[in-house]
Amino acid sequence: MLPFLLTTSQSVSAIETEYALKAGFLFNFARYSEWTVTTPALDKFVLCSPDNSFIEVASTVLSNRKVNHLPIVTRTVSITDTDISQCQVLFITSDTINQWLNASLVPLNNIMIVGETEDFIAQGGQIRFFLSGGKVRFEVSPKKLTSANITMSSKVLRLGRVVEQ
Fold it and tell me: Whole domain around residue 54: which residue ranges?
């Protein structure tokens, strides 16, 4: 029983570490991006995910952080137009991809949509995390970001793999 608990504990720790790294990436994506269509005055910057485990890790990692002088707030959301409309960044994990694929959503503007599954950009996302050599990397579609009224800094784009889909 002890080996099982140790293996499970290490697995959970690895997932938490990966989520912490991804939360840091999301923070930097937000810091170095501009939402070009102004919305009503915001009093917070909202990072959302339907995955509560990710939100728990992200809320710890991003506590007391700000994007454009706005405090970051993390929220667990359902994949519905109403819930997602409150987000500036939406992260779809591999555990929640089926919810994303089965949702009937209106076109999402002013929301940076990030995922971690193989065909995520083709499935409506703008940025996808992947692992390469044991490190978290990302690919991004600048055209999809632009169509959502978001511009990402060229400095960040150079760090990822640019894809056009």
Answer: 2-162
